[in-house]
């Protein structure tokens, strides 16, 4: 590795120029990578609700729908608006009452089920059907065009409207996330380094790695907006340690070499070995996300693994080149470290180890209870600002039409009229169902399908399937609507085993069922993976158990803040945060433990070894924790998208909690279990008898 290090040091200008050149294709790749704003699209294709959407596209040429609420408009003008909406690209059809009955029929003579569905006071509702899926770019373009057309008197609700608003909000906020994270990280680096130029070099090197990572996402086809929002700040916070390690290694090597290139070659060699080993635990944490059935985990996991690997490569190539090129500027801007010595604080922590152990024992059960009891929510739009167009429209739908959800029933088109009418009647009797509409709502079971208006039949019936609409009073992702969906599904299956209930609420029900299993799977995989890695690194059975226990306790405390604070979290937060906090912050514990083991094997008694390990790793752990905190806290305070805000709040809080618990609890655990560690670690057995 030293030969490679010498080549990097010697070719520093070429490497720096190449690094700058690679920014161009990376930027092109980033700009051409599609971003997916629909979380529900990451559900597995094997689910009936997901396959049902594909059938909708294949059979009816439509995959999404939105409710359009029109206020203060007479029927003639409403019919004209309906015709105008149908001219918008990717709006396949607009379903209104004139598709069932002639406009000449007075509203007072319309059957109750149709009148309740389409009229309330001076407001009327239409159902716009799109020719693509909920989150397709074409559907979002159609929503935007519809909003421009309908004006302030009309409101467009539904998941497609929500996804469009998420996209618009995310596009506004994403650049600000990076700026805030960079500025706060710069502040931390100015406090923890001894040069005013070094922080800018560190951020530039990591910035290269972030751009390369985002640019190579083009090979994945698309990434989620959550991944796009988190990757830059996470990569900045997680890989900052690597840069600091390289600098420290270079500063230590310089007095031993006359040629600075040789010193940097030594630093690159040491850094690659240490950072490659350290990054394995971080990669393991992200790799656990790939085991999620809900494919958002795979999306985030792959991109972050790629980011860590690229970060390591840039740390041993781009960063050393920049340090050597700008070394004169670095030396000219040297200053005294702004952080004071931590030795007195370290002595206090070590001296009072028994206090931290007692606190651990007392707090463990409440922390575990808090971790397990956090309330999760699955309603995608509940974490968005009330001022968004979709939020206003959904409130209108709820207040004026008493509708919270619309489910779609798909049954075999060959099913007889009597059975279809019975399905509608039984579904209307289910708790919380306001109305159920289908072709037979207009004609009745005694009139043959051939007499149904072709205009209506073409919209609701294909060669293989027929669609029915069900209006629910219950909000999505609630126990009430989940029970309602189960009852409706039982009714449909009793008449048609191939029939299915699809829509926003059924998808969210499947989302809850899927991710509850994923939470257990991902946590188990991440714990086992990191346990095995630490066991191999330290050649010990006891040390991985101690380290994983310490970090898992930090995770429990982090989640317990939400539980005891009465704060509900989006469903994905505990899955993502648990693995990231474990994978990213277990490095703090590994750093201190490695030094403890080295000192014990060198002949030091346990108290001295623990004290040395604590003092020498204190500032590094403090810098790492503050770096991850700084990279995430600004986003947590700024973001208006709760799905993102909740995750980064947990991450920034988790970084501080892990930092404190490792600095306080780990030395106490090492003191308590020193003999056990010595007897269960290869090469340390003799240390147990040493006084």
From TrEMBL:
Subcellular localization, as worded in the UniProt entry: Cell membrane
Residues annotated as domain Membrane transport protein MMPL: 131-329, 462-673
Entry keyword annotation includes Transport: no
Broad class of the protein's primary localization: membrane
Keywords of the record: Cell membrane, Membrane, Transmembrane, Transmembrane helix
Stored Gene3D superfamilies: Multidrug efflux transporter AcrB transmembrane domain
Name of this chain's protein: MMPL family transporter
Provenance organism: Muricoprocola aceti
């Amino acid at each position: 590795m030293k030969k490679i290090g010498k080549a990097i040091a010697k070719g520093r200008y070429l490497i720096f120029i190449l690094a700058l050149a690679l920014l161009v294709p990376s930027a092109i790749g980033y700009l051409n990578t599609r971003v997916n704003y629909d979380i529900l699209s990451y559900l597995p294709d094997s689910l009936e609700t997901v396959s049902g959407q594909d059938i909708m596209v294949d059979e009816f040429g439509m995959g999404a729908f939105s409710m359009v609420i029109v206020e203060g408009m007479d029927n003639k003008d409403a019919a004209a608006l309906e015709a105008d909406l149908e001219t918008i690209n990717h709006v396949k059809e607009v379903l209104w009452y004139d598709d069932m009955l002639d406009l000449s029929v007075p509203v007072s003579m319309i059957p109750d089920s149709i009148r309740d569905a389409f009229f309330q006071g001076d407001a009327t509702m239409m159902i716009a059907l799109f020719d693509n899926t909920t989150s397709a770019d074409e559907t979002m373009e159609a929503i935007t065009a519809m909003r421009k057309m309908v004006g302030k008197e009309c409101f467009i609700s539904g998941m497609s409207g929500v996804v469009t608003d998420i996209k618009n909000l995310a596009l506004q906020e994403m650049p600000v996330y990076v700026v805030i994270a960079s500025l706060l990280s710069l502040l931390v680096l100015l406090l923890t380094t001894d040069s005013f130029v070094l922080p800018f070099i560190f951020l530039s090197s990591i910035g290269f790695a972030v751009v390369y990572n985002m640019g190579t996402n083009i090979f994945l086809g698309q990434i989620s907006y959550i991944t796009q929002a988190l990757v830059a700040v996470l990569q900045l916070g997680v890989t900052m340690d690597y840069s600091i390690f390289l600098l420290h290694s270079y500063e230590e090597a310089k007095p031993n070499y006359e040629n600075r290139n040789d010193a940097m070659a030594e630093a690159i060699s040491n850094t690659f070995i240490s950072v490659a080993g350290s990054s394995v635990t971080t990669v393991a944490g992200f790799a656990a996300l790939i085991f999620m059935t809900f494919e958002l985990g795979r999306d985030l996991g792959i991109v972050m693994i790629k980011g860590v690997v690229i970060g390591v490569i840039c740390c041993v190539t781009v960063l050393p080149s920049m340090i050597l090129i700008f070394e004169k500027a670095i030396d000219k801007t040297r200053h005294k470290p702004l952080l004071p010595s931590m030795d007195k604080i370290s002595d206090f922590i070590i001296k009072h180890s028994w206090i931290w152990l007692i606190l651990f024992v007392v707090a463990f059960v409440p922390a575990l209870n808090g971790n397990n009891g956090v309330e999760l929510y699955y309603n995608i739009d509940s974490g968005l600002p009330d001022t968004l167009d979709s939020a206003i429209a959904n409130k209108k739908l709820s207040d004026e039409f008493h509708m919270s959800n619309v489910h779609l029933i798909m049954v075999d088109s060959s099913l007889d009229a009597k059975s279809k009418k019975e399905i509608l009647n039984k579904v209307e009797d289910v708790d919380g169902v306001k109305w159920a509409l289908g072709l037979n709502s207009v004609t009745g079971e005694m009139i043959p399908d051939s007499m149904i208006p072709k205009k209506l039949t073409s919209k609701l019936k294909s060669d293989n399937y027929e669609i029915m609409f069900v209006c629910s009073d219950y909000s999505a992702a609630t126990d009430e609507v989940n029970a309602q969906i189960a009852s409706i599904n039982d009714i449909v299956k009793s008449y048609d085993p191939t029939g299915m209930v699809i829509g926003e609420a059924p998808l969210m029900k499947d989302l809850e069922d899927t991710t509850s299993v994923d939470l257990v799977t991902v946590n188990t995989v991440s714990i086992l993976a990191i346990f095995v890695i630490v066991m191999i690194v330290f050649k010990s059975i006891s040390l991985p158990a101690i380290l994983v226990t310490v970090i898992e306790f930090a995770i429990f405390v982090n989640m317990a803040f939400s539980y005891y604070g009465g704060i509900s979290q989006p469903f994905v937060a505990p899955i993502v945060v648990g693995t990231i906090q474990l994978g990213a912050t277990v490095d703090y514990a590994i750093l201190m433990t490695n030094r403890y083991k080295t000192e014990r094997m060198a002949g030091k008694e346990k108290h001295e070894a623990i004290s040395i390990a604590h003092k020498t790793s204190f500032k590094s752990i403090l810098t790492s924790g503050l770096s991850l905190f700084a990279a995430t806290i600004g986003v947590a305070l700024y973001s208006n998208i709760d799905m993102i805000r909740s995750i980064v709040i947990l991450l920034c809080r988790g970084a501080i909690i892990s930092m404190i618990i490792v600095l306080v609890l780990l030395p106490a655990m090492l003191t308590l279990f020193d003999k056990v560690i010595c007897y269960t670690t290869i090469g340390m057995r003799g240390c147990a008898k040493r006084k």
